Task: structure prediction
Amino acid sequence: MIADGLRVLFCGINPGLMSAWTGHHFARPGNRFWPALHASGFTPRRLAPAEEQELLSLGVGITNVATRATARADELTAEELVAGGRLLTAKVERRAPEWLAVLGVTAYRTAFGERHAQVGPQERMIGGTRVWVLPSPSGLNAHWTPAALAGEFGRLRQAAFGASAPPPAPPATAS
Result:
C-alpha cells in the first residue's frame, strides 16, 4: 500500500503468516504496529489492519523489505533481506516518500549493510528520502514496551510532520 509523495512509508520486515492470509499488513492480533501508530498521533483513531488504505489519505503508506511470509522474521535469510533492501531502494527512489521508516533494526542492518545502525534517524538517504529505523512492533520484541514504542513512533511523526503534526491521541481510559 504505497503512493507517490507520502510523508512516511513504513516498511515492515516481511509479512507474517496472518498478514499473508488476510492480505493486510501487521494483521496478527499481538502486533503492536496499529496501537503504536495511533498512540503516537499518526492516526486519529486506532485502525484495524483491514482499514490500512485509510493511511494513504494521512500521507502514510506501508510496504515490506522481503516478500516471503514466515511465522517469524528470523526465518528469512540474509540474502533475502539484502535482495529486499535493493528492491526497497528502487521503490523508494521511484515513489520518493519524505521518510522511510524501517521497522526492525536487525533487519535494517542486514538489508542495508549498516552493521552499527541504531533506532532513530539515520545518516543514509535514498535519493531525497530520509531514513528512520524504528523498533519492530512484533510482540516478540517485548523489551520495547507499548509506551516506548509509541514514543519512538511519535519522534518520527514530529520529524515528518513538524508543526503540522496532530497531537498524540489521549491515553485510553478503562471502562
